[in-house]
Amino acid sequence: MRAGGEGAVFWLEAGVYRMQQIEPLEGQTILGASGAVLNGSRLLTEFTEVDGHWVAEGQTQQGVRHETDESAEGAQRPGYPDAVYVNDQPLTPVDSLDQLRSGTYFFDYDADRIFLGDDPHGQTVEAAVSPFAIASGANGVTVSGLTVEKYATPTQEAAISGNGEGWVISNNEVRLNYGVGINIGGNGQILDNHVHDNGQMGLNAGGGGILIEGNEIASNGFWSGIDVLWEGGGGKFTETDGLMVRNNYSHDNNGYGLWTDIDNVNTTYEGNRIEYNSAGGINHEISYSASIHDNSFVGNGGNGLTWLWGSAIQVQNSQDVEIFNNFIDASSGGNGIGLIQQDRGEGAFGDYVTVNNSVHDNTLILTSEGGVGAVADYDEERMLAGGNSFDNNVYHVSEGGEDQFAFGDYYTFENFGAVVGQDLGSSLLIG
């Protein structure tokens, strides 16, 4: 983009632009017509049959490998971004030829060969090559109207990566990239994008004054082989100040729907729909002041997680969080609102402790096993005396459960109020 100079506007006509890597200058704008696609892969069209397998020769790409030790259970070659797709579906990598099966591929890096487990003839086969679509440290860049897909983005890196200040990334479809779909830095905005089916995670961001609004974030975190509880799922935000996450629809991700982790302060989650994410809904972890309000949650974390893990709203070793006016439907399983304290040390603004959190005026629909409350496996006394409070909430359960309400120990709803003084102005509706 150097030919246009700083502040230039570029227009991409409809069409597929393969293996392009754009490094914007200060203030540049990149716009796409409907049907403009940045595709980080090459088409594979020539195959030979070798010992009953189909082989593409001359594959010299080898993407940067990060965090190969952060593997999901049973995954092979996690952190290897050299993805292969058949008809827009990512195949599963295996690490030896004798494990090749239908739906898998084996990349023999020594021989520069990709082996496929299925006959590719008549199919569209693509191999991810380029590590990013649009990325630079310039400030004030705008990216809008593009489809960005199939980039060999390393773990924790993004296909669109605004590493400078004030990027605006809007109205794009970002899909099928190995690592992360979109990343921004301070005073950046991610607006009205459809971010889906990326291998590790949909979004990430860090810095001050960030706005995440109006995005659909769906079905991310399923195929990179990286453990999503280490980092993956819908979106993760780190070391932010004044982060606003508003009116997004985050659903069906493998991991948390939305996640603030490490030294986030003055965070707001407002008006989001968070549905059917495997690990839980919103997780605010080892961070500080936040407001989580007027969000709706359905079906998050209902995958057999114990303790208060998998809550629709989960606060881990964080303080000064107000949780109010949320609607939580956990009738298919999972926990409601969980405050969790463990031994996590200290961060930029003090100890990572679960204190001074207020949970009020929320409506929850629970199973008889779904939990609510505060638990600790470290310095429980500090958490219990730390000003955490539950009040004026409404709980709906199909039948009366025993010991669903936690404040250190577990209690019935009646004893949650009578013994520990929580939820005194709340109600439990059975049936």
UniProtKB/TrEMBL annotation:
SUPFAM superfamilies: Pectin lyase-like
Protein name in UniProt: Right-handed parallel beta-helix repeat-containing protein
Span of the signal peptide: none
Source species, domain of life: Bacteria
Pfam family, one: Beta_helix
Domain spans labelled Right handed beta helix: 159-318
Region (Disordered): 58-81
Lineage: Bacteria, Pseudomonadati, Pseudomonadota, Alphaproteobacteria, Acetobacterales
